[in-house]
Design a protein that fits this description.
This protein is mainly alpha-helical. Helix content is 54%, strand content 7%. Strand 1, helix 1 and strand 2 form a beta-alpha-beta unit. The structure holds adenosine monophosphate and tryptophan.
């Protein structure tokens, strides 16, 4: 069975961009592959953060991911910093990575601009840690959103370079995208993200989501209620495509917009209704899991144990190939 690896940063709330852009894929794929999913706290510390909150944020994210439908028994969900091999392999990969390649990464350039006062070496090295995450489990399948494709390509390069220098050790991985690898924010201007505040949270209440939806921009051609619109030009319609099943999507939403049969508020109310059909069960599972935090913590501990074993094997193999292993270990 091929290995699946993916990660998510504990830097805020889970939103529907994460869900429809990536997580929904993880739910299906977890049964097809040997799946490792990591809350990547070592990545999250490359930008400013409050140490007081980090542990809780990581745990809450794990709860949220289980609530979304990750299988508590099957998928190895774990917290990255509990498995030391990731940082060790990062150091090794650093020694075969040209500096220029890291300086050219899109996410590094964006984040360096966003966090001018804190352009630390970790921010530059971020993709190398990501490559170590994937390759330490010999991951081949990496389900992510579009913004991470460059990092997965970089990981393939790292594997190739290591294999060429030290012998065949790592497989070449591939990114697996969903049908919607880039979900836009409710402002309609840029992709949905935690840092931009333009998100709809998976655990947000119906009332809070409505407060965000009601004033959100729609097709600018619909100035008056009687003006017909073009669904394809409307950001709200792009959310309907995620949450509203056929035939309602075509017959009520798209047709209603084109003929001005419905107003934008009617359309948004319908979206809220359909979105909550997806979010309500997740929120219910979240509430149940929140009463069993001890059990969830035990699962995370057991998963970290398995990860330490598997990653330890890879580290030994790598050291052996590089002439670093003490002879008694071989
Ligand atoms: P992050 O929250 O940045 O750690 O991202 C977790 C996963 O969600 C990654 O696979 C991202 O590619 C994906 N993701 C984040 N934001 C979006 C978005 N707006 N559209 C699609 N996928 C996203
Ligand atoms: N960089 C990814 C993000 O921001 C998170 C991540 C860390 C990851 N390590 C990974 C994703 C390994 C896939 C595989 O979304």
């Amino acid at each position: 069975m091929k290995v699946l690896f993916t990660g998510i940063q504990p830097t805020g709330l889970l939103h529907i961009g994460n869900y429809y852009g990536a997580i929904r894929n993880w739910l299906d794929l977890q049964y097809k592959y040997d799946s490792y999913i990591s809350v990547v706290d070592l990545h999250a510390i490359t930008i400013e953060y409050d140490p007081k909150d980090m542990r809780d944020n990581s745990f809450e994210l794990a709860l949220g991911l289980f609530a979304c439908g990750l299988d508590l028994k099957k998928t190895k969900l774990f917290i990255q910093s509990e498995v030391p091999g990731h940082a060790e392999l990062t150091w090794i990969f650093n020694t075969i990575t040209p500096l220029g390649e890291l300086e050219r990464m899109t996410q590094f350039k964006d984040k360096a601009k966003q966090h001018r006062k804190n352009v630390n070496v970790g921010l530059l090295d971020y993709p190398v840690l990501q490559a170590a995450d994937i390759l330490i489990y010999k991951g081949e399948i990496v389900p992510v959103g579009e913004d991470q494709v460059q990092h997965v390509e970089f990981t393939r390069e790292v594997a190739r370079r290591f294999n060429a220098r030290y012998g065949d050790t790592f497989p070449e991985c591939q990114a697996e995208l969903t049908a919607t690898p880039r979900v836009m924010g409710i402002d309609g201007d840029s992709k949905m993200s935690k840092s931009k505040g333009n998100f709809i949270g998976i655990l947000e209440s119906r009332e809070d989501i409505w407060e965000k939806l009601a004033p959100a921009p729609t097709d600018p051609a619909r100035v008056k209620r009687s003006d017909p619109g073009t669904p394809e030009k409307c950001n709200i319609y792009s959310y309907h495509q995620l949450a509203t099943p056929e035939p309602e999507l075509t017959e009520y939403v798209a047709e209603g917009c084109r003929t001005a049969g419905i107003g934008c508020l009617d359309c948004k109310r319908k979206l809220l209704e359909n979105l909550m059909k997806v979010l309500d069960p997740i929120q219910e599972r979240y509430a149940t899991l929140s009463t069993k935090k001890g059990e969830v913590r035990d699962i995370l501990d057991r998963n970290a144990d398995v990860c330490r074993k598997v990653s330890g094997q890879t580290i030994l193999e790598v050291k052996e190939r590089m002439g670093l292993t003490p002879i008694w270990k071989i």
